[in-house]
Design brief:
heterodimer, A: 267 residues, alpha/beta, D-Maltodextrin-Binding Protein, domain 2, 2 domains, five-stranded mixed beta sheet, 42% helix, 22% strand, elongated, B: 280 residues, mainly alpha, MetI-like fold, globular
């Protein structure tokens, strides 16, 4: 009988458990990835990058390019919600680099003394209105979302895209009653993809990566709720030299080009 | 593994004149049993130790918490009712009627058990969503859609929890002595009357156990609910959803919310179990 109870408890605390497990593995991570930065500045070894879920497509691409530019390196990603990643890092997960989708989650990590140096804002992301391809409801601006019979999904205020949506809506003076407050931006987007809602407020990059099913409508008020993405090398990075090289690569013109193509904008 | 403690021999209180000796517990069972118990209880201990107990009363009085708790209890209870109405006849069919493809049907009933709940939620959307197989018809005929409604929460919970009830009741039916039903039949009772007057009372404890299991599973349901019914306070935000979102910003709040759900559900289950399942 106790299994469902335990499941109940675990349902809400998965991240905690994951963080704990990751913490246990902390010691072995560094032993497995010997790193060396020779006199010529050549970097090798494994780099573990914890990055916000919205960076999945662009960072995977950047990781491939980085490996090609630095033979002997191997970039491994863990993509998840920024707050989950921040919790894992503070619980001792063996990561080299943290790229967050919101300054607040980065602050959690740096406040705990786990950042090496100051984080750099490397891109910004902006909200757009995601509608099904063809825009069947003819939505043009933010106030159209309040029309009767229009179902809208927002992110919950606790996650970055929800906080940004709240800011954008209040600056536009639009009172919106969503049918749901989703747990992350991808969940909000999937409600549009599945046709369950008529519109959702998501990041521009999300509509780019789902261009097959949805289209993004820009709205001026999103300028008031721009999301900064900070990146930092972590204090306990098992491979600090390669971590620094990876961050430099993200900030380089080549990295910026990949990110811009995905819909991000330069800070 | 030679020496076994003599302490294992325990006198049972209230036994006959000569104290009955309990069989020694073999170490081969005792050690994994203790490990199993520790495995199940340790995470709970972690929760209890980390809990900020002083803030618990204050959290309880926050309006959002009580709303979510009430919604959780209401939807889990309704879902259990739905599962009883649909699941008990299904269990009877599987246990008592020979029909072609019965094994396949039995396997299909367990599908929600192996399906990750989030996938279950997507599957529900594809069936009952606004553009789903049946949902499209519901919308065009009655102008009614299930996603993002409290009814949608009940549907998601019932989908995930019903297999627990069906499996428990089917097991009880298979364990029940079929001769009672045969005797009723020889006395002229038709199958419906036999089911109501003989079978149901016979397997009542099994049904109660299944219903409790089903209720507990429905109460803890997260993945299918948030995917199918979404998350809106007062309408579809049950306690597990509130816990998940609290975890985004405030670990302490998440722990307290988990504890509240845990305490309430354990209390209710213990109460019902004593009443229903320990009767001789």
């Amino acid at each position: 009988m106790s299994t469902p109870w335990v499941r109940t408890a675990l349902a809400g605390l998965t991240a905690l458990a994951v963080a704990g497990l990751a913490g246990c593995g902390g010691g072995s991570g560094s032993a497995n990835s010997p790193s060396s930065a020779s006199a010529g500045g050549k970097v090798t070894g494994k780099v573990t990058v914890f990055a916000a879920a919205s960076l999945t497509e662009s960072f995977t691409r950047i990781g491939r390019d980085f490996q090609a530019a630095h033979p002997g390196t191997k970039v491994t990603f863990s993509f998840a919600g920024s707050s989950d990643l921040a919790t894992q890092i503070n619980q001792g997960a063996p990561a080299d680099v943290f790229a967050s989708a919101a300054p607040a989650n980065m602050k959690t990590v740096t406040d705990a003394g786990n950042g090496a140096g100051k984080p750099t804002t490397f891109v910004q992301n902006q909200l757009v209105i995601a509608v099904p391809k063809g825009n069947p409801k003819g939505i043009r601006r933010l106030s159209d979302l309040t029309r009767k019979g229009t179902k809208v999904a927002l992110c919950a205020e606790q996650v970055p895209c929800g906080a940004a949506a709240k800011k954008a809506l209040s600056s536009a003076g639009v009172k919106l009653r969503p049918v749901t407050q989703e747990q992350d931006v991808k969940a909000a987007l999937s409600k549009v993809t599945l046709g369950e809602v008529d519109a959702a407020l998501v990041y521009r990059t999300d509509t780019r990566s789902a261009a097959k099913d949805v289209q993004g409508i820009e709205f001026p008020e999103s300028k008031n709720a721009i999301n900064d993405y900070p990146i930092v090398v972590l204090k306990d990075a098992p491979n600090r030299a390669a971590a620094k090289a990876f961050v430099d690569y993200v900030l380089s013109a080549k990295g910026k080009a990949v990110l811009t193509r995905a819909g991000f904008q330069a800070p | 593994m030679v020496g076994i403690d003599e302490q294992d021999v325990v006198a049972r209180p209230g036994g006959a004149a000569s104290p009955r000796r309990v069989q020694r517990v073999p170490m081969g069972l005792m050690i994994p049993a203790a490990a199993g118990l520790a495995f199940l209880v340790l995470p709970l201990a972690g929760l209890l130790i980390r809990a900020p107990w002083t803030t618990l009363p204050r959290r309880l009085t926050e309006p959002g918490v009580l709303t979510a708790l009430r919604l959780s209890l209401q939807t889990a209870t309704t879902a259990t009712g739905v599962c009883l109405v649909l699941g008990v006849p299904l269990a009877w069919l599987l246990a008592r009627v020979e029909f072609p493809g019965r094994r396949l049907v039995r396997a299909l009933v367990t599908v929600p058990l192996v399906l990750p709940p989030v996938v279950g939620g997507v599957a529900l959307l594809l069936a009952f969503g606004r553009n789903g197989l049946i949902g499209r018809w519901l919308d065009s005929t009655f102008g009614f859609t299930l996603p993002f409604t409290t009814a949608g929460v009940v549907v998601a919970e019932a989908f995930v929890a019903m297999p627990f009830l069906v499996i428990a009741v089917e097991g009880a039916l298979r364990g029940a002595d079929i001769r009672y039903e045969e005797a009723a039949a020889t006395l002229g009772s038709d199958r419906w009357t036999t089911f109501i007057r003989v079978t149901l009372p016979l397997v009542a404890p099994g049904i109660a156990a299944g219903a409790l299991l089903c209720w507990a599973r429905a109460l803890g349901e997260f993945g299918a609910t948030i995917t199918f019914a979404g998350n809106f306070p007062g309408r579809t935000q049950t306690m597990p959803l509130a816990v998940y979102l609290a975890l985004e910003t405030d670990l302490q709040a998440a722990i307290v919310l988990s504890l509240i759900l845990l305490i309430v559900s354990v209390a209710i289950l213990a109460l019902l179990r004593d009443r229903w399942l320990t009767a001789p």
